[in-house]
UniProtKB/TrEMBL annotation:
Domain HTH LytTR-type: 162-261
Annotated organism of origin: Dyadobacter jiangsuensis
Keywords: Phosphoprotein
Membrane spanning stretches: none
Residues bearing PTM 4-aspartylphosphate: 59
Protein name in UniProt: LytTR family two component transcriptional regulator
Domain Response regulatory residue range list: 8-120
Pfam families according to UniProt: LytTR (PF04397), Response_reg (PF00072)
This protein's record includes keyword ATP-binding: no
Annotated GO MF terms: DNA binding; phosphorelay response regulator activity
Domain of life of the native organism: Bacteria
Keyword Amino-acid biosynthesis: no
Leader sequence segment: none
Matches recorded under InterPro entries: CheY-like_superfamily, LytR-like, LytTR_DNA-bd_dom, Sig_transdc_resp-reg_receiver
Length: 264
């Protein structure tokens, strides 16, 4: 039976070191309870059925069955799924599976806390009296919170170039080369003429770094380079490549105002 106030967790990973690290993190958080460990997705399928956990920490690349294949076998009502992988290129697919979070190896304790806090926060959204202490309050007093998950970095002058961290590579990109950006929670999908990249960053942070005279936020999930806008019809932008991007109702006035000075 679930201990009062505690979330039952299952760790699914074929790498022993990765399992041990997450197990250590689970043991450090008072409201988490380790319910089981599986080395394969096949074993995890039965473990989830038997233990009925609240959270599953799930690797993607495993023998026999991948983490995504496991997700497709689970019922609609399932535990909170937190993906853990060394490859950021799976972020888009993870977003489509409505994951609670997507962590990149090696996972820092601070990043782990942020992920589990999403699940715990869903239980006490208003932090009512008697609710457990938010995990975010624990970070400052925890030594491991100093371990920072490498994030995307910016370098160079604001309008000169950006260094984008994708997986273990730094990619130098001039802002003008970017056609548009699609937001996916804590990840972004950047499109330019010859490739697409997935990076770990929020829309707010990338928007702050881009030259505002060149880029437009057209809805909650898209930022578009003005030079690639071919036409606007109703509440929809069509880019030079033919991609259609909706204009959010609350963004429409700003978008039209930004383009008005070029109207003849």
């Amino acid at each position: 039976m679930l201990s009062p106030g505690r979330l039952r967790c299952i760790i699914v990973d074929d790498e022993a070191d990765a399992r041990r690290l997450i197990e250590k993190y689970v043991q450090k958080v008072p409201f988490l309870e380790l319910a089981g460990i599986a080395e394969t997705a096949t074993d995890a399928l039965f473990l989830i059925r038997d233990m009925k956990p609240d959270i599953v920490f799930l690797d993607i690349e495993m023998p026999e069955m991948t983490g995504f294949e496991l997700l497709k076998l689970l019922p609609a009502t399932r535990p909170a799924m937190i993906m853990i992988t060394a490859d950021p290129s799976y972020a888009l697919e993870g977003y489509e599976h409505e994951l609670t979070d997507y962590l990149l190896k090696p996972v820092s304790f601070e990043r782990f806390l942020k992920a589990v806090n999403k699940v715990d926060g869903a239980r006490f959204p208003k932090h009512s009296p008697g609710a457990s202490e938010p995990v975010s309050n624990m970070v400052s007093s925890t030594k491991e919170s100093q371990e920072q998950l490498p994030d995307t970095e910016f370098s160079g002058a604001r309008n000169d170039f950006l260094l984008l961290k994708e997986n273990k590579k730094l990619i130098k990109v001039a802002p003008g080369e970017i056609h548009f950006i699609e937001g996916m929670r804590d990840y972004l999908k950047l499109y330019w003429s010859d490739r697409v990249a997935v990076i770990h960053m929020t829309m707010a942070k990338i928007e702050e770094a881009l030259p505002s005279a060149q880029f437009l936020r057209v809805n909650r999930s898209y930022i578009v380079n003005k030079k690639v806008i071919r036409e606007i019809e109703g509440n929809e932008i069509t880019t030079n490549s033919g991609r259609k991007i909706p204009i959010g109702v609350t963004y429409r006035a700003n978008v039209l105002a930004a383009l008005q000075k070029n109207r003849i």
